[in-house]
Amino acid sequence: MKDHKKDYFYNAAWLTIITLFEVWIVGTNLDRIAMVTILIAFTVTKMMLVALIYMHLRYETKLLRRLIVLPIPLALFFLWGVVYDLSFNWTI
Amino acid sequence: MDIPYTVKNRPDTGLYNGKLGVWLFLASEVMLFGGLFSAYIFLRTGVDNWPMGAEYLSVPLATLNTMFLITSSVTMVMSWASLKLNDFKKFKMYAGITLLLALGFLVVKYFEYTSKFHHGYFPSTNNFLGIYFTMTGLHVLHVIGGIVVIFFYWMPGAKMWETDPGRFTNRIEIVGLYWHFVDLVWIFLFPVLYLL
């Protein structure tokens, strides 16, 4: 438990650094697509840090981890489907 | 007769019932917010011009709120860790700090909202502000819900520590899971609404 305490504070430091980097990068003249890609990558990283360390998924049972992780590819597939469909500009 | 599996893990799931229940609840919450994020994607990609978040919103205030929530996640998990180490005084301290940080988040949000209203920006003004107020408003309701529950276990509900410490510790753990989820939602709202 005492080792975990250190992890919690290190994790907070990383989350803060990534957040500040997110804000900084928006102010740069980076290409729009690159910026969006980087922001999404940072957001997913932050999500993983909170879920694994603070929500203890790292230490949970295999069953729970699988139940939570398995739907993610399905959600990404759904997202891809939505974004792909948008390009057709359907009209009724 | 005692309620089974409030402290010990069930042999089939490997979890105590409360934790499994909260994870199922959080799954339903993912669907709720997932629907709103999908609506945001449709609204945003359905128009030629979508305003940048910074045109309407204050990025420094949102960054401050992000810090409040990140820090409150640390103090929340530390309050649970303190109970695991049988240190009730530290639990009270960390849970109290969590409450203060959550209230700080609400105060900043209050100033953000009143500033928008003062400038004549309402949910009906345009689609961006409509989805902004809907998503952040729902998130604020979740923060208020978290404050109510944390306050309960900080003050009147803390009596359970004397009679059933294992059960009380597990309750704080599942309150923490909810609170970290509230933090997670904000982690997505911050770049989507304020930075992009």
- According to CATH, the homologous superfamily of the domain at 63-195 in chain B is Cytochrome c oxidase, subunit III, four-helix bundle
Rg of chain B, Cα atoms, Å: 19 Å
The main pleated sheet of chain B reads as: none
What would the average pLDDT of chain A be, to the nearest integer?
Answer: 86
On the 0 to 100 scale, the average pLDDT of chain B is 94
- Topology pattern of chain B, helix = H, strand = E: HHHHHHH
Distance between the termini of chain A: 59 Å
Describe what this molecule looks like in 3D.
The complex is a heterodimer of chains A (92) and B (196). Chain A is mainly α and 92 residues long. Chain A has one domain. Helix content of chain A is 78%, strand content 0%. Chain A has four helices and no strands. Chain A has helices at 2-26, 32-54, 62-69, 71-86. In chain A, helix 1 (2-26) packs antiparallel against helix 2 (32-54). The longest helix of chain A is centred in the first third of the chain and has 25 residues, at 2-26. The mean pLDDT of chain A is 86. Chain B is 78% helix and 0% strand. Chain B has a domain at 63-195: Cytochrome c oxidase, subunit III, four-helix bundle (Four Helix Bundle (Hemerythrin (Met), subunit A), Up-down Bundle). At the A-B interface, helix 1, helix 2, helix 3 and helix 4 of A face helix 1, helix 3 and helix 7 of B.
